[in-house]
Every structure is written in C-alpha cells, then in structure tokens.
Design brief:
heterotrimer; A alpha+beta; B mainly alpha; C alpha/beta; B: MetI-like fold; 15 helices; 2 strands; C: Rossmann fold
C-alpha cells in the first residue's frame, strides 16, 4: 500500500514552476538594474569628484578625476583606470587610460582646481595667480586670492549680462528694422553708439587674467571672461560638495547646452518637450473625447461601429515611425507646403511651415495618441451604468443634456487617465519627431516676446532626441555620457510620475465603481 | 398644486430640442471626422506609393519600379553576382542608387525574432507564474511595476543598449553566454534548496513570493558569472573570445549586434506580452482549474493540461502583439545596431530595419522622388503588417473572451 | 388554450367597460414589441385609469417591464426594438411625430428597480430635472425642492444635509430621493419598476405608504413581483404571461376571485409545468 504522504521530491512544484518564477524575478531584476543605473549615474553626474594628482612609475605626473576602472582586455588579472584629465588644448585629449600597476602614488592636494571654460572643455591643474590691472594675487595669498577671484568673476558675469541685454533688446531690433528699410542718419548714430558700448563692455570683461599651470608644467593664461566656474573639489567639505551638487542640478535644469550638446544644461529641451506635449494635449483631448462619445453614445451599435472600434484600437499598435511618415507627408509637405505658397510666398524657397516645426510635431503626436485617449474614454463611458443615463432621460432630459450633465462628468477621471497616458507616451516618443520637427540645437525657443509670441513653425529641442543626439552624434561620447544619463533620468522621472498618476487615478475609478455596484 | 405647477414654455422646449439635434449632429460630425483622420493614414500611404508602380513618379529615372526588382537580387555595375543591396545615397553621380527591400525586411524580421527569442520565454514564464503561483498580494503590486516598464521610452532603452550594454557585452562575452546556462540552473538550484530547507525556514521563502526573493539570488549569480568571465576567457579562449571566434568559427563580431538588440527590444516587449498573456491565463474560469485540481492534479499539471490549452489563443495573440511592437520599434534598433544593411543570420552581426531606415533617410529624401516613395512603401509595409497582426490578435482575443463567458456560464 | 379564449376575452372586456372613457390616462391598442426579432409583447389592449394605482404582475420575462418602458418611450434608445400599435396619453398618440420625447418623459416619470441617484448632492439630484425645464429663481427652486422631498417623505431625514452626496443615503432613502427627483418636474404619471425589490421591509413599507398618498394627484403604474404588495397598494391589477395580457380587473376581484385558472395558479403559487 502506498503511503499517504508522497516521497519527498527534489522540487515541490516541478522545474517548470521554478523557471516561471525565474521569469518574474529576472524581469524585475532587469527593470531595477536599469532604473538604478540611470538614477545612479544621472545623479552622480553633478557630484564634484576629487581630483587626483597621479605620479606614474615612469615619473610622469598628471591630474585628473577617476571615472571608472575595468579589466585589461585579454588578461585575467590587472585593470586599467580611466581619468578625465581635461586640458584638451594642452594635451590634445581630455581622457587618459592608465594601467593601475603603472601608478606610483596618488594624492589629492587641496590646491588643485577644475575650471569649466567656454572653450576646450575643463582645465585641471593649479591656479598660480590672478592678475588685475592694479595688482596681482598669488597662490600664497590663500583665501584672499579666492575671494578676489570670486568678486571679479561676479563682475564679469554682470558685464556679460549687460552686454547681452544690450545686444538682444537694442541691437537686434534695430538691425532687423534696418534690414527692412534704409537707414536714417539718427539710426546710424544709434547703431554706432550701441556697437561701441558693446565693444567697451567686452574690453572690460577681458580686464583680469588668471595664470594656470597643469601638473605636467605647461602654463596657460586666460582672461576671466573665458571661465565659467572655478572649483577646488579637494578642498570642499561634504556640505560644500552637497551644495555644489544642488547647484549642478539646478544649472542642468535651467541652462542651455554647451560644447555641441556634450555639456551644459537641458533647459531648452525641457521647454520644447513641455510646449510640444501641452499643445498636443490641447489638440488630442477634445477630439479624442468627441470620437469616444460618438462611438459609445451616439453611433448605432452595429457591425460597422464594432469594426471601427477594432480599427481604432489597432492603430495604437501601429509603429510610431509610420505616424511620423504621415506627419511629414501630410502636415509638413502637404499642408505646410500649401501654407507656404499661399501666405509666405516671398520667403520661398526657404520654407516657413513647409518644414518640421512645433505645430506639426504636436499634430503628429496628437494623432499618434488619439487611440489611447479614445480607448480610455470609451472604457470609462462603458463603465457608467445604463441606469444613470436612463435616470436622466426619465426626468425629461434630452440625450445631449443627459450626456453633458450626467455621463460626461462621471467619465472625467477616465478621460484624465487617457490624456495622462497619452502625455506619457508622447513625452517619450522620439522617432516621429525626427521626421517632423525636432532640432539638435534650437537657437531660439518657440516662445519669445516677438509677435505672435508662440512660433508654431519653429523647430524645437526635445529631451528624448537630446539623448539620442548627445549620445550618438556628439564628437566626444565619453564626455557626453554623464549628461545623457542625467537627461535620461529626467525623462524617465517625468514619465514614471505621469504613469503613476494615471495608475492611481484608474485605481480610484475602479474602486469607486465597485462601491457603487455593491450598494 | 396649481401654484406650483411647472409648465415649460413651448419656446424653451423647442430650443432644447434644437440644441439636442445640433449637439448630436456636431458630435457625429466630429467623431466621424476624427475617426476618418486617424484611418486616413493607411489611405495616404497607399496613395503616395501607387505612382511608384505606375511610373508617374516625377523624377529623372522615372521608370516604373517593378515589384520583382525590389525583392530579387539585381546586377549592379562593379559586382560579379546579382546582389541584394540597399544603398540609397549614390556616392558619385555615376553610381546608381541600389534599392532592394530584401535586406531591410530581413533586418526588421531578424531584430524582431531575436527580441522575441529573448522576450517570449521570460514573459510567458512571468505570466504563468503570476497567474498560477504568485501570492495575490504580490500580484497586485507587480502589475503596476510591469506597466511602468512598458512606459519606459525606447530612446532610453536604446541609449543604454547602444552605449552601455553593447560595449559591456563585448568585454564580457563569455560571461554573457555563460548566463544562458547559469541562470536557469541557478533558479532550479534555488528551488531544490528551498525544498530541502527545514519547514520553519522554507515557509519564509515560499514559491508565491519567489518573484521577489529570487532577485538578490539572481543578482548575485549574474555578478559572479560576469566577475569570473575574464578568467574563463583566459582559460578557454586564449584570453579573447572575439579573436577566438573569428579564428576558430569564422564569426565576425560587431559591437552593436542582433544579440544586443534582442536583449534591449526583448526588454521593451516583455511587458506587452506579459500583461496580455497574464490576462488570458487569469481569465480562465476558475471552475475549470478547480475541476482539474479536484481530480488530484498538481498545480503544474493543471496549468499544463487545462489552463494553457484554454488560454492558448490569448497567449498566441499576446505574442502576436509583441511581435507587432518589435517590428515597428524604431529608436532601439536605430541606437543598438550598426544600421548596416546586412543579410546574415548570425546574432553577432548588425542589421538595418525598415523603421530605423525611415528615420535615418526620410528627412533627406526629396519628396516625390523614387527614394521617398520607396521609404513610404516601407512605412506602408510596416503599417499593413502591424495592422493585420493586431487585428488577428484582437479577433482571437474577443473569441476567447466569448468562450470564457460561455464556460463560466455553463459550469 | 382554445377553451380559455372566450372567458378571457370576456374578462378583458368587462374591465374596459368598468373604466369610463374620461377616466382613462393611458389607452393601449394592439401594442406589440419585439427585441432583436424576439417578441416581448404581442397584441396588447389595455386602459390605465387616471389617479389610480395599476399593478402589473406576472412571471419573469412576461413583458411587464417592457410594457412599462413603452409608456415613456425609453425603448427609443435601443436600435433593435421593433414596436407596433398605439399608446395614447390623455388622448394623444405618444409616437406622433410632433410629440417631444423629452417632454413626454417629463410628464411620465419613472422610478427604477435599483435606486439610481446621480453622483451629486441630494439637492442637486432633485434640482436636476428642474434646471432642465426652466431657469427658476433660487428661492422658488428651493421651494419646489422642499415640496418634492416632503411629498416623497424624505424632507425630515435630509433637510440638514441637503448638500451631502446622494450616495451617502441608505438604499430606501435613495429610492425615495429618486421619487422626489421625479416629482419635482410635476409628472402626470409615475411608472414604478419594482421600486422596492432591492429594499429592506421597513423601507418597502415606506415606499408603499408613499404610493398610496401619491395617487391623490398622480396616475401610478407599478410593476412588481410581490403579489402581496400588488394586493396592498393597487386599485387595478393586470396579469401578464408570455407577452400577453391574461387577465385585468379590479385588484380585489382579481385576487379573491380570478376568472381564469392561469391567473389563479400564478397568484396561489401553483405551476402547471
């Protein structure tokens, strides 16, 4: 007779069940790893790392920030380390791989500085002295040197601000006006005067100099105008580093890109993304809701409507690039081209609307996300019990009144869910934008103080495309990587927040309907 | 009664009636308009592509292109044999551009196949586990996480794949190949260990929560495998697997290759397949599986004999929709492959997919030209393919729902 | 069946004689309704007396709810409903082209099986229909709302929380709120589709009491499963089966002395099948 208890088996549920569990674990592991990688690298980008002064066994010295370490190719042991050494103008490259075995000593002297410059990337080395017209301060002056440097850099940025204001608000409008008509003598005087003032400001910015020396002994003299920021990470306390980190995050969010998108901030990309998404949601919400209301409330529920519903649902699965092609062919070349020949004929052959731009990109994405909104709204409408509609009608409401006063208000959360999901999808979609209007580097944001204030025909920058461009088209990918990580983190954060909102919203709707159904 | 009586004026009644008619009319017009606009995509592509075959393209070399020349190898000057080639931009005026869609279609399908090879086992495994074995509490938490995974933008996944994963895999080839063996064995080992643990310990790591507690175990295994990868490489492949493969097997290794694309795009389609397959499995009427279990079948037997056959159309449609997504995904392929139009099967070569090709070339193609129209033809093919696949999947799915309702109703 | 035809005709005919022509609120002639090709009602002839309570009883699927929904043309919403025959409200054909459906539904109010208050405040629920009909000044509207809630015997329970959500009320209160909301637009007829089937006995009692008071100025039509309820509150009762009107007469007569065996079987709970 068999025992009641089975023999103890190797696995309780059989191998399949465990492998299936592994599927969940592995998927989760990948998501977590991806998010952790992006978050870790993206946030670490703003942390000022120490600068190491490295002496090699060969006696050579250099200074740099260690980036990462990896095994030597083709060998089981030993590793090499990547340093960011800066000084591209002096050494020809700002990266250096060093075998760890070849390093003799590593120190972190407090007087090493890293200087963000307007050209040539960062400088890493020592600050020898600061030269003004009236006096000079050397490294032996200690705190006085740094105080003076800070003051003088503040002065330069004040001057720069003045110059830019003069340039943007006086020179440019004048120049534009002059383009259109002949110059009058008074205008000529004004133009001359402005130009002279700008030149004077620029001269004043050049007044002070710093003398720098790299660890390999090369000297460099730079005017303060060429510097963006001077930091001594080795001398910073933890708190100061934290402050510097916060400042870095803020500058990333608020400044424009520099050095062919490999440095600086992403403000124009944030702005472009937000503008595009806003415009898109303004377009997609009414049309999506109308189409859903038509399909669910007005159209006769026959075979045709069912087919159309399946068709619309399936359009959500059509690749986004196909929408991009449609946008390019219909909006840009079709409608944009006709608009150009009708209203902007004197600007041809250079296109105004006949090229990618904010409006076309928003329209294309609106089309792309229409199915999302329609499906979500329809789902919401279908969840509303018929008794509510009948209740309104039985009180003498017409169909439109029942719809407007009872049905639509109840479907609002579902519509919101749809719109939020649409926004989340649109914010991450890059492929169609490459066809209909994104720019690597837009000199102007599509909003300014010039009539009509919002320039729908202009190209714009986009966070997602910024990732693609900086990571794949930039010259120095290594330098761009931290920035790309930070941008990716920002994009993922935005999308995660939007999706979480949608999920929570949907959850509350379902919960509410369950409560109602139980009553 | 009379003083309270409410007598709506005929004028107001009329007004409300007219307003209702107008509103209905407006909604109908708008609704139909929007739906037509959305459906116009297919029409537009067809209209633009037709001149390609009738020969009315407004270009210099405006012979109608016959369908054969797009799909069969062609004789080009400078080559000995007929070739499949896609080379749109002639380097000099003397060169003729070479338009063969075969390598593009090949690249598209190759990327999709490798992605599915990676995604389908994982996603179906995950779906089976969460539908049948996972604790309910965990299941409700996992779903939103997977939904979030679906929302991760392609450009971010592509960037990680192209700039981080590809060079890393190149340096840890042995480790990555070893993982294919190590991970399943590791999971089984975890199962065996769990069964051997004393009850007081093993109840803390139940199968229902394996989706969570396996994560650190697997992470450890991955780290270990990749960590010893250089030693293995020295031990077995003279220190460099790439050279070894090149010499011994004659395999070329491209940094950005089909394997990396498969991993990245597989990652992107896992959530799609998972959530649809999970819905199908969880939707099987409980009476069916309870019936099987009442007859003494184990959970795994029930799954294999009852649940999977019942849900197989749903699982099929999940895979189809996943395939549709993989075929149309642009940014991942664009960023994680070299975008060279090769026609090889090797997972270590790159490829160029239709979607990526459109993204690269369409902005430069002159509207109305042959090149432009061919790219639009690519878009049309993508559109038709995904639309058909999705429709098929949708039909299968709605049949399945009906069947479930019948089963749920009769038993 | 054949031998039943003549007494049945006689039974129907007698009631027709009972109600004087000027007392008829609804007159139904040869009404047939089919849902998607399936017959729900066939060849119905019926008069509903004014300012009385008429109850429709019969087994599930006998067509009594269908009949009720025909009175306010709620079937118009369905595309696959086919209707033939005439329904006259106060001598006017309700399907005539010049009839405004919205106004018809205002005149013929309806209360459903499960309470369906809108997800708004109590006040807004009652004000809903009023706002549609006319832009009343607020004071006047408040008066009407108070009157409607009082008529539905709900005022005392909710007068201090008019702006709470209607969903916070109990089931019985919700149903009375729905009645109040319907009364607010001054209907001539009130259709009640099993109004108490989802309620507890005490709430049911309150609703029944309400029905008896309302008939002083309203025509009420009640569909119910509950024979005792029909006997308690209605003046006339119609028994339907299989989409046909079997017997119709004064409630007392029909319950104590049904003319037909089918009616008797149903009332006493015996089934032939």
């Amino acid at each position: 007779m068999r025992k009641l208890l089975p023999r103890r088996r190797l696995l309780i549920e059989g191998p399949g069940a465990w492998l299936a569990a592994g599927g969940v674990a592995l998927s989760l592991l990948m998501v977590l790893a991806l998010l952790a990688l992006i978050a870790g690298r993206g946030l670490a980008h703003f942390w000022p790392p120490d600068i190491e002064a490295v002496t090699l066994v060969s006696g050579e010295r250099f200074a740099g920030q260690p980036v990462r370490e990896q095994g030597l190719p083709g060998q089981a042991s030993g590793s090499e380390r990547l340093y960011r050494t800066g000084n591209r103008d002096l050494d020809g490259d700002q990266w250096r791989w060093v075998e760890v075995n070849a390093i003799d000593t590593r120190t972190t002297p407090e007087d090493l500085v890293i200087i963000e410059r307007r050209r040539w990337g960062p400088f890493i080395g020592r600050l020898l002295r600061l030269e003004g017209p009236e006096a000079q301060w050397t490294a032996s002056d200690g705190a006085a040197l740094w105080r003076e440097l800070e003051e003088r850099m503040a002065r330069v940025s004040q001057l720069r601000h003045e110059r830019d204001a003069l340039h943007n608000h006086r020179l440019e409008p004048l120049a534009e006006h002059v383009d259109d008509s002949a110059m009058s003598p008074s205008e000529e005087d004004e133009l001359r005067e402005i130009k002279a003032r700008i030149l004077a400001l620029q001269d004043a910015m050049q007044r002070d100099h710093v003398v720098l020396e790299s660890l390999s002994g090369q000297r460099l003299e730079l005017s303060l105008e060429a510097l963006i920021e001077v930091k001594r990470p080795n001398a910073m306390s933890l708190l100061a580093k934290l402050a510097s980190w916060g400042e870095g995050v803020w500058r990333f969010l608020s400044e424009g890109p520099r050095a062919a998108n490999t440095a600086g901030g992403v403000w124009p990309a944030i702005f472009g993304t937000v503008m595009m998404v806003l415009l898109m949601s303004v377009l997609v919400t009414p049309f999506g809701v109308l189409a859903a209301v038509y399909l669910n409330e007005v159209a006769p529920q026959g075979r045709l409507t069912r087919l159309v519903r399946i068709g619309v649902r399936n359009l959500a699965g059509v690749p986004s690039i196909v929408y991009g092609v449609f946008g390019l062919g219909v909006f840009v070349y079709g409608i944009g081209g006709s608009l150009d020949s009708l209203f902007f004929a004197d600007e041809l052959p250079s296109p105004t609307f006949g090229t990618g731009g904010l409006l076309w990109a928003s329209l294309t994405l609106a089309l792309l996300t229409l199915p999302v909104v329609i499906v979500a709204t329809e789902e919401g409408l279908a969840r509303i019990p018929d008794s509510q509609r009948e209740g309104a009608l039985a009180l003498g409401a017409t169909r439109s009144e029942a719809l407007r006063r009872v049905v639509l208000p109840m479907a609002v959360p579902a519509m919101l869910t749809g719109v939020i999901l649409a926004i989340a999808r649109a914010a991450g979609e890059v492929a169609p934008l490459m066809l209909v209007g994104v720019a690597k580097l837009a000199s102007q944001v599509p909003v300014d103080d010039e009539f009509p204030f919002i320039h729908l025909e202009r190209k714009f920058m986009h966070l997602g495309y910024h990732i693609f461009d900086a990571g794949f088209h930039g010259g120095d990918v290594q330098a761009a990587m931290p920035l790309v990580y930070a941008t990716a983190l920002l994009l993922v954060l935005v999308i995660v927040v939007l999706n979480l909102t949608a999920i929570l919203l949907r959850h509350t709707i379902r919960a509410r309907h369950v409560v109602q159904a139980h009553r | 009664m009379t003083e309270r009586s409410l007598s709506p004026s005929p004028w107001r009644r009329r007004f409300r009636y007219v307003r209702d008619r107008l509103f209905t009319l407006a909604v109908t017009a708008c609704g139909i308009g929007v739906i037509l606009a959305v459906l116009a995509i297919g029409v537009f592509l067809v209209v633009e592509v037709v001149p390609l075959f009738t020969g009315s393209a407004s270009t210099a070399n405006s012979d109608a292109i016959d369908i054969e020349s797009l799909w069969l190898p062609q004789q080009y000057p400078g080559y000995d044999e007929p070739q499949y080639r896609w080379q749109a931009n002639a380097a000099t005026d003397a060169d003729t551009p070479m338009f063969s869609l075969t390598p593009l279609a090949w690249g598209t399908l190759k990327a999709a196949v490798y992605a599915l090879l990676f995604a389908v086992p994982l996603a179906l495994g995950a779906a089976i586990h969460s539908a049948c074995f996972m604790s309910r509490r965990l299941r409700f938490r996992i779903k939103p996480v997977i939904e979030l995974m679906e929302a991760l933008p392609g450009v971010v996944i592509g960037f990680i794949a192209g700039l981080v994963l590809a060079p890393y895999v190149e340096r840890h080839l042995v480790g990555v190949f070893a993982l294919v063996l190590v991970l399943p064995l590791g999971i089984l080992a975890a199962g065996i260990i769990q069964a051997r643990l004393p009850w007081c310990l093993s109840k803390r790591v139940p199968l229902g929560w394996a989706g969570l507690w396996l994560i650190p175990w697997l992470a450890g295994l991955v780290a270990l495998t990749l960590g010893i990868s250089p030693y293995l490489e020295v031990l077995w492949f003279d220190g460099d697997m790439r050279t070894w493969m090149d010499q011994q097997l004659g395999l070329d290794y491209a940094t950005r290759n089909a394997m990396v694309v498969g991993l990245a795009m597989g990652f992107a389609v896992i959530p799609t397949i998972y959530s649809l397959a999970e819905d199908a499995l969880a939707g099987v009427p409980a009476s069916l599986s309870e019936g099987a279990q009442a007859l003494g079948a184990s959970q795994w037997q029930t799954l294999w004999k009852v649940l999977l056959p019942a849900a197989s159309p749903g699982i099929f449609s999940a895979v189809m929709i996943g395939a549709g997504r993989a075929v149309g995904e642009t940014m991942i392929v664009l960023m994680a492959t070299g975008n060279t139009a090769l026609m090889t099967l090797s997972p270590l070569d790159g490829m160029r997919s239709m979607a990526a090709n459109i993204a690269i070339e369409l902005p430069e193609a002159a509207p109305g030209g042959v090149h432009y129209q061919l790219l639009l033809l690519c878009a049309l093919l993508l559109f038709v393919f995904t639309f058909c696949v999705n429709t098929l999947a949708e039909l299968v799915r709605s049949r399945l729902t009906q069947r479930y309702q019948r089963l749920g109703g009769t038993t | 069946m054949a031998d039943e035809t003549s007494p049945r005709q006689a039974a129907l005919h007698e009631v027709v004689q009972d109600i004087p022509r000027e007392g008829r609120c609804f007159e139904i002639e040869e009404l047939s309704v089919a849902y998607a090709g399936k017959t729900a009602l066939s060849g119905l002839n019926l008069y509903v007396p004014r300012h009385r309570v008429t109850a429709f009883i019969g087994p599930s699927g006998c067509g009594k709810s269908t009949l009720l929904r025909a009175f306010n043309r709620l079937h118009d919403l369905n595309d696959d409903v086919d209707r033939q025959g005439r329904i006259m409200l106060e001598g006017q054909e309700i399907h005539a082209p010049e009839v405004d459906v919205a106004d018809l539904r205002r005149r013929v109010g309806m209360v459903f099986q499960t309470p369906n208050p809108f997800p708004m405040s109590i006040y807004e629920n009652v004000a809903f229909g009023l706002r549609l009909q006319a832009a009343l000044p607020k004071r006047r509207r408040d008066e009407v709302i108070e009157w409607a809630l009082e008529s539905a015997a709900l005022w005392d329970e909710v007068k201090h929380r008019l702006h709470d959500s209607a969903l916070s009320l109990s089931g019985g209160q919700q149903q009375r709120l729905v009645i109040a909301r319907t009364l607010a637009v001054q209907p001539e007829v009130l259709l009640l589709d099993e109004p108490a089937s989802a309620l507890d006995p005490i709430s049911t009692l309150k609703i029944e009491e309400l029905i008896r008071t309302l008939k002083s100025h309203l025509t009420l039509v009640l569909v119910t499963h509950n024979m005792q309820q029909a006997a308690r509150v209605s003046d006339y009762t119609a028994f339907l089966e299989g989409g046909e009107l079997i017997e119709y007469g004064a409630t007392d007569t029909l319950f104590t002395n049904p003319r037909l065996a089918r009616t008797e079987n149903y009332i006493t709970g015996r089934t032939d099948r």
